[in-house]
Amino acid sequence: MAQCSTELDDVFLALADPTRRAVIRQLGHGPASVGDLAGNAAMTLPSFLKHVRMLESCGLIRTEKSGRVRVCELDRERFTVVEDWLAEQRRLWEESTDRLERFVTRRTEKRKP
């Protein structure tokens, strides 16, 4: 459980930054070079590379160097950590609202003559 929590924390930390979310959004359309991705960011290449390294270290993207070009690609499997957590949260909230609905329904039925 602690490992899953750390992985989830790392992913959410990476996604907390708008630059990194923009990279993820772009890579959702397919692989792209670091140069192409950086061209849309209003920062220096060394600063942008820090974002790429963070996304790579938490497993959201993979990079591969081919000659002088580094190409980035989404690791879609990594998003299952977030999907699983969201599914669990959804289940908990639905159970809670179902209990509330049963409670309100019972109270309303008791009041009817």
TrEMBL record:
HTH arsR-type domain span: 1-94
A Pfam cross-reference name: HTH_20
Domain of life of the organism encoding this protein: Bacteria
InterPro entries: ArsR-like_HTH, HTH_ArsR_DNA-bd_dom, WH-like_DNA-bd_sf, WH_DNA-bd_sf
SMART domains documented for this protein: HTH_ARSR
Family annotation (PROSITE patterns): HTH_ARSR_2 (PS50987)
Entry protein name: ArsR/SmtB family transcription factor
Organism, scientific name: Prauserella oleivorans
